[in-house]
Protein 1
Amino acid sequence: MIQKRLLVFTLALLSLALPANAVSLEEALKNARPYLDSGVASFPKPFFVLSEYYYIYSPSIYSPQRIFVVVSQDTGEVMFNEKLLASVGPSVFDYGVFQEYIKKNKISFGGMQTTSSQLGLAIDRNRGSLSALSSKTQQSYPDVSFDTIDSKLAFLQNLALDVNGLVNDGVVQESQFENDYSDYSLSQLMSYYKGFYSKAKDLIAAYDDYNNALFQKRAEIFKSSIPAPDNENIAKTLENLQLKVDLLETLRSLKPWQNLESLEKAKAQWVNDSITSLSYKKLSVDVNAKYNELSPSIQNIFYSQAVLSQCGLKTEADSISAKWKEIQLLKSRGRTTDLQRLPSKLSAVETEYNSLQSKYQACVNPQQSSDFIPLQQGFDLTPVIILLAVALAGFLVWKYKKSQEETYQ
């Protein structure tokens, strides 16, 4: 009975932890698509930031295209609040650094763990070999000392132990992030990487000092009075004690301690540029939607100039046509300042069009003018206008013939 209650309680907790009515990845993508350009990839699962889960879409941090799109997992709404985006943006950038720089170059904690452990074992073996060489050599040549090499190797060993500890802790942090997928765990992980790479820089310096000490000692042995083949055997043993660690050579080449610092400096600008790009994209999407909604109805005016003139509406029609041409010009230029002017201009044209349509209805059908319905989104008035135009044309022809008959009578 107790186990059953515990099971029910656990399931209740899980139900509270899971977001209710969460939006699917497909639905989130559908909502985000109008604002996405080619080359934009999504995070593999919702990202937890500011106490909410979000679907996030972003291009490469190295791409000239700078924009990221955030969709609420709860509502499916694309987020445009700049304060929220400014909070999410740094995590988006850090995620790009983790995926595109650290993991791509195989210098993640998970990728370094095996090599880090092997380095410690190699140093242990070298200390044993160096001790044996020193004992054997001093039996015949007591003045020959390997203390400098041993000191540098001991220092390298201590640093290698520290670095190996950081790598093991980092693997735990990496696993924590993969499970949580949150801004906090990502921030912790990136802090670990910065600390590790700084320590790795010191390790490389100690690694170089040790190998250089071996090279110098070999040169001393050949210049000493030690005869062959003893000098050759000692030199060969010293050569075999040199370390060649691919991981350290990779880190030396990549210099992640420098690159992470450079990327950190670029982060704020990347976030700001991305927010600006999204703002422009939203403005462009909104303007295009309204333009496409109005365009078929405005085109009717161009095809109905004669009929509108008969109703004394030429001035109003010309005004709308002129404003529409200005809208088309601003839209074609597509600058931010142009697009910012368009929402109010489109709204004004829509109001004028509704007024023109109302007057036109009153002209051709006075008794039903009160029943006029304003422009509806997506409703094409072309058939209605053509029908009314034909009716009006027939009426005018009949009236003209009647006046001619009265004249000749």
Protein 2
Amino acid sequence: LTYLVDLFHTAITGDGVYPPMVDSAVLLIVILIFTLGAKTIQQHNLHSGR
């Protein structure tokens, strides 16, 4: 969430803590990790009958 706020801050005021590419890359990586984790847990639960 901090990276998203920093990305908005950079877009609005032009001075962020991290460059926009770093903010975007970290957000994308975190989204992918959570999505893959959720899919893995869902598949495990489907196979175990929960």
Protein 3
Amino acid sequence: KLQTHSCSDTLLFQLSEPIFTEAQAEILKAAMYDIRTYKAVDLALQSAWNIAQSFEYRDTTCVGCLIAAAVELERVSTILSQLVDSLALPLDKTDPDRLMENLLKMNGEVYRRSLFLSRLRNFTTDDAFKAGLSSEAFLSNWIKSEWFLNPLYNHVFRKLARIKNSERYSLFDKVSLWLPGLPSQWQELYARKLSEALLNSSREMQSAGRFDQAFILAANARDILKMIGHDDEADLMEHHLQEPMLGLYRVYLDVATDAVKNGNLRMGDEYLQKAIAFRAQNRAYMPGGLTDAEVYGRFADACLDKIIRLHEQGLYEEAFPYLLKAYDYARRITVYLRFPELDRMRSELAQKSYGQLLEKALDAYKIKDYASAAEFFEKWNQVRKTWSAWLQFTPEDDSIAKKYRISRLFVDLQELKVLVAQNVTDSLYAVADQKRQEVVNLHLTDQPEFCNLIREVGRLFFDAALKETGSYLWDFKFTEARSSFALADSISVRFHIADCEDVNQMLETMQQRMNRQNVIYATFLYDRYYYKTVSSFEAGSFALGKAYADTALQWCCCGCDAHNLESLVGKYAPAIRYDKYLQRLEYFYALQQADSMEFVRQRLFTWFQTDSTLSQHFTQPDTLWLIKLKPRSWVFDYYFGPLMEKGKPEYVLGLMEKLRSEGIPGEWLENWQMLTARAIAAKDIHIRNTEAAYQRLAQLAPDVVWYKVFREVYISKRLSVFQRMLN
């Protein structure tokens, strides 16, 4: 995935961040290694079964072969079992190649062969020689296997082919265990024959240039002699190990030298580092040979010779990588005798490459091949920056900068065109506008190459802006659509495509589409809010209906008939005014402004009395209506308090009884009911028997609900008075 970044000089590409963290990569690497090991063990088991099938364990025609096969199978089985045990794979849950089962079968095969061998007697010298030759053949087969050369499986097959000095070769342990009566002389003959055969195979491998395999076989031959106690003879075989090591070292150096001579500097340096690392790791087997300084000097010479050949061919630019690498090698040496020659070649290469690249750039610029000119100018500028200390500048060099800038601008416009064709972004538009301004500043608008590129880039942005406009219109997003349309119009002017007939036609068509879409959308909204207005009026929400009507009138345009809506609003004008005042009543109630509430109620009551149509939609706004509408303690205090101050508790009591009969809970009025009952009882003291009044007051204990007493004492005698008061 590529991310695009813009800058003033060029358009750059940068790779996105890796998808794995370092820890995740290590886990994945370990898992892949285990999978490779699993597959290699499976292949090795198949090869081991070939050994078992080549010598049937009851066949006594070659006893030495049977012994060698049994020992090799036991050795391989042990190594492979250790490898499988080291795996972090869930083999108990999934084992596609049935590795565990095959290992058990191999162990069973080894056990059967050991039992059969324990019954054998009378071993001859010829059996020992045949056992040694067979064991050598088995060991060599691991090296000669195609899987040994496969880098995926080499680590397993190398382990099977190598008998490490620190390990006790199972041959001598197992043979003594399986054949307790076997004389030690027989075992020594076996080991010597095996060592001799391995050494001969090592020489064959070395003659064939397979130095790695030759070293393994020679090391096995030496270690077998050590295992039978012949350390002196083993030490004399060290030179057999040195020869393949030196051979492999020379191969690395030869590959590196040939790579440098043939122009593959990266490969040459890679194999040079491999050779040096190989020598450091195997220094014990390479007492002679070139030192690291001599190797670096040799390769510095190789690079310098390559520089001279390229210089003679006029390939100055191609010689620079070799020049840098030659200096790198030469600086690693205490004394490098060809430094003066190297410095001279540096000066000549810098000056001639500088002139050659500039000449190529100017030639390409003259024929208006700006892409090639920009490439040569880039290389010329890089030489100028890198090798300025060895260059002689001429006065006209400064005038080249403008041509360099023009060529670079042409390439940037080409790259920009490709990027815009893939995806249009605001950042790319900013870059395009910047490049357009550069064309103007450099007076290139009369150049067809630049003018056409600017128009092509502008046309891409223009088409994208119009497409975006259409998308916004489809979703009725007119603000965004107008903005995109204005951008398209601006692009047509700024990028000099306004004189194109098809561009003007597209702008005109889009403008007409915007107008049509506006009418469609306005008609839709007008109808929508018209029906909301009607629904609100029918539901009695006249103020809300008026708000919907005002919104609908805002969207009324050509094709809309507002007369019906205006008539409807006029019809409900009194109800709308009345409903708005009801909302003011709600506002004052929220603020607990009782005086303002009463003022609004009186205004509503006046309108209700003067306009008979209001009774069709609203209830008469008398005092009782307002108290029922907002039954709260501060509302009761506002209306009941003045009546009590005027000595009219009967009026208050009548109002409360009326409220209670219409569903107002008695506990909301309990406080005023107690006060009213006491006031009426107090008045009765003056107009009735005093003792009877005291008895009635005694019944009005705080924990007795007022209306229980009221019904017993007052309703029967005062009901007619209350009815007259309420009427």
